[in-house]
Design goal:
Length: 227
């Protein structure tokens, strides 16, 4: 996701406490398991900030396994709160939920440009959206937020585990294209690591990003031109 990180004073400690408590409540609702039923449609989502006060959120829906394009939607709204490290989902999720409500074809699973449980409190944007929507989700992020890993081999499809200091598996580090920086893939909600990894690899079409999030990012740039 394209993050806008404005300079300014530290966030209000009371606000941080309130959202951290809410995040803990949401985390208790996360369920990691293979998705139930057939996965026929996959969505990708992304958010960007055309201005410091505006967030634009995009969903695209593709058919599996062909990745045939089904639809795209977007929603533009006000930024609800300042950037707070570790609490990004509260900044982006409300507008993403409004964009999701515009879809005619409901996806069976959502690939989110961001983290699932590979988050300091195991509650990244993919987990947050999954709980809010009660839909299977997983995260595909371009940068590590937390965890330890060894660099995977430079060839496409190489994978290493992402773990915490105790060895708990948080996600997998996947080389999506030869000699490019890897992706950080983790389950969000109603999804397991095996499914997240399998779909990430299945959605690669020669680019670093898998098609659902790549197209969401592409259309975010296109929709900006309409604003």
């Amino acid at each position: 996701m394209a993050y806008f990180r404005p300079p300014g004073p530290a966030p209000d400690p009371q606000l941080v406490r309130e959202f951290t408590q809410l995040q803990d409540q949401l985390r208790n609702q996360v369920r990691l398991a293979p998705p139930a039923g057939e996965l026929r449609y996959i969505a990708g989502c992304d958010s960007s900030f055309p201005t410091p006060d505006t967030v634009l959120s995009v969903f695209v829906v593709l058919e599996l396994p062909s990745l045939g394009f089904i639809e795209k939607v977007y929603h533009v709204g006000p930024v609800p709160l300042p950037y707070i490290p570790g609490l990004l989902s509260f900044r982006e999720a409300p507008n993403l939920l409004r964009a999701y409500a515009k879809l005619r074809r409901q996806p069976d699973i959502i690939m989110v440009d961001g983290h699932g449980i590979a988050h300091p409190r195991r509650m990244g944007i993919a987990a947050h959206l999954g709980v809010e929507l009660d839909v299977p989700t997983f995260g595909v992020a371009k940068q590590r937020l937390t965890g330890l890993y060894e660099e995977p081999a430079l060839t496409k499809g190489s994978i290493t585990p992402l773990t915490d200091k105790s060895g708990e598996l948080l996600g997998q580090v996947i080389r999506s294209k030869d000699k490019v920086k890897p992706l950080f893939v983790s389950p969000g909600h109603l999804c397991d690591q095996a499914t997240a990894t399998r779909l990430t690899l299945a959605c690669l079409r020669g680019y670093k990003l898998p098609e659902p999030t790549r197209l969401a990012d592409h259309w975010a740039e296109e929709f900006k031109k309409e604003l």
